[in-house]
Amino acid sequence: MTKHVISIVVDNNANVMARVSSLFARRRFNMTSVTAAQTSDPSVSIITIVTEGDAHILDQIVKQTLKLEEVKSVTLLPPNESLLSETLMLRIAFDAATISPIKDIVEVYRARIIDLTSSSMVIQLTGKPSKIEGFLEVMSPYQILEMCRSGIIGMSRGSQSDWWKSSRA
Amino acid sequence: MKLTGSEIFCEVLVEQGVDTLFGYPGGAVLNLYDALYKYQDRIRHIITAHEQGAAHAADGYARATGRTGVVLVTSGPGATNLVTGIATAYMDSVPMVAITGNVPTPLMGQDSFQEVYIAGITMPITKHNFVVDRVEDLADILREAFRIAQTGHKGPVLVDIPKDITAAVTDFAPAAPVRDSYTTRIDMDAIDKAAEIINNAKRPAIYYGGGVIASGASAELAALMKKTCMPGAYTLMAAGVVDSEDPLSLGMVGMHGCRTSNFALDYADVMVAVGTRFSDRVALSPDAFGRRAKLIQIDIDPSEVNKNVGVDVSLVGDVKDVICALLPKVHQTCRDEWLAQIAEWKQEDYHPEDSDTALKPHQVIRKINEIAGADAIYVTDVGQHQMWAAQYLHHVKPRHFITSGGLGTMGFGYGASIGAKLARPEKTVVHFTGDGSFHMNMNEACTAVSFGLPVITVILDNCVLGMVRQWQTNFYDKRYSCTDLNRRTDYVKVIEGFGGKGFHCETLADVENAMKEAVKSDCPVWIHCRIDKDEKVLPMIPGGCTCDSIIME
Question: What residue spans in chain A does CATH classification 3.30.70.260 cover?
Fold first, then answer.
């Protein structure tokens, strides 16, 4: 199964998120992560969904989503050709022996320590998905107390104008 | 012009050309009904026995006319009683606007009396739905609901109106009726490709569905069949698009379609799917469906392309527009060999045996058909009687066979018949039902009586849930779990109690006499026909199989 990132431009109405997730649920489309927020145009929101599926399922996801009345466009963001970003927060336990190697990793990844107690810290990292995965892997030997991820957001590269008006079928 | 939300509601209905409204009053819609009182010279309101009946009636009205059916009910249970009716319309792409009242805005979300979040409940079974937050938005939301319901791939739309919105006052500006804003963009390359495939075909066949009716493209489809000498198989939803006795008509296709249709699509080297969605009741084995054919699909909905069965060429657009673009590109052809093969299959097809003693389903249906004629509208419930009606009626015109295909809703028929009769009062409306389906919503007899609607109901009573029982016979070793009904309903007494007329029939002559009385009646008539509980719907192709596994006896 291939992972796909889909950017959905929608009317910024109450319920629009429910409509999209209801569609994914009833058609049994996978939803690995989802983010949603208003854009610079207050009447428009963008929902970014990470999903899994073969070419046929992806085709159905795009077409079925586009049928929703409040969806203006559905754009695929191929990972290699797009700007993708995610934020991670990680609460890590440390002691005298582990604090130094943890701080080294934080520095290498240009992450930030945003909360600190005598025995634990919260590390925040923003970056492309592969960076987040890599960071989680090197942190895996340490004691992770809590973790949360924002889900992926993304944009196409280049200078697109009228980005949603052009792609509405 | 300053109007209340309720007056705006009535004004928009009138403006959109709505003359008939099906519904049921209640607390949350008191203001709306108060306004309807003033508009009763322009909007006829039909109160049913149950909100489900109102939803099916609006659906039947829409299917008989092509216009959008409208249903109005109160909040809570009124709204939830619509759910099956809305889902039925959704599955069969029927344009419908459902309006529900709701508790006043300040009480919403508080688990108030008769409050339910109907927008959430109906999200998966509507094209779109609205909750009206401000009276200023009401008129445009209602117009938008009509536009969405009848544009493109048609379907139901729900508008939920809180009670305070129906009392609030705002400016109202009249507008024109909304128009179908859909326009087909013809892809000429794809048209050329499709035409080339059809022109090079040896054994082409058309497989067409309800989309042809929705598009009003019967004549265009018939022209395509004739010009290219391409026989056509219809789905349950498309009965009547082309005369079912036309030499180029193959018959119904699918699980209970005829052998000829299923064989023809299986042996075809080119299949043109028109306004149909390769459902699991037709493409029983999706990987093997049309296995020898190049597939061309014409549909208004791009998401239907490659959904269940992969196709070689897709032509997305309104069926009529696409066929009109395709017609000049295809060659006039004769296909004597292919038609001879089809004629041979027709000879070998399943032909039920007549009986002089017992009532046989096919004989009852043909007798009723003979008396009511080709101009009558035939409505069904769901089960064996539905398939028999589909198989043995002579289908001549579109919108004259009304049945719940996608959802398979038992209890659909009586409400839908009432809607069809109100839409087409000049036509005889015959409702075929079974004793299972009929017990679900026979209470709508009171509606038919109150409004003087002489709907004729033909009950094919086998005392069992025949379709389920048939599966138990074939696939569950005759373990008849909960399908023997043991009911003692006296249908003649029941309909007399409601204020209509009834007939018990033992012989075909009884059926003939009863039907001759029925077509003259000015009140609803029930014709009760006892049939054997072992009667089966044949042929049958089990789910997941191909026509190689067709059951003929």
Answer: 3-76
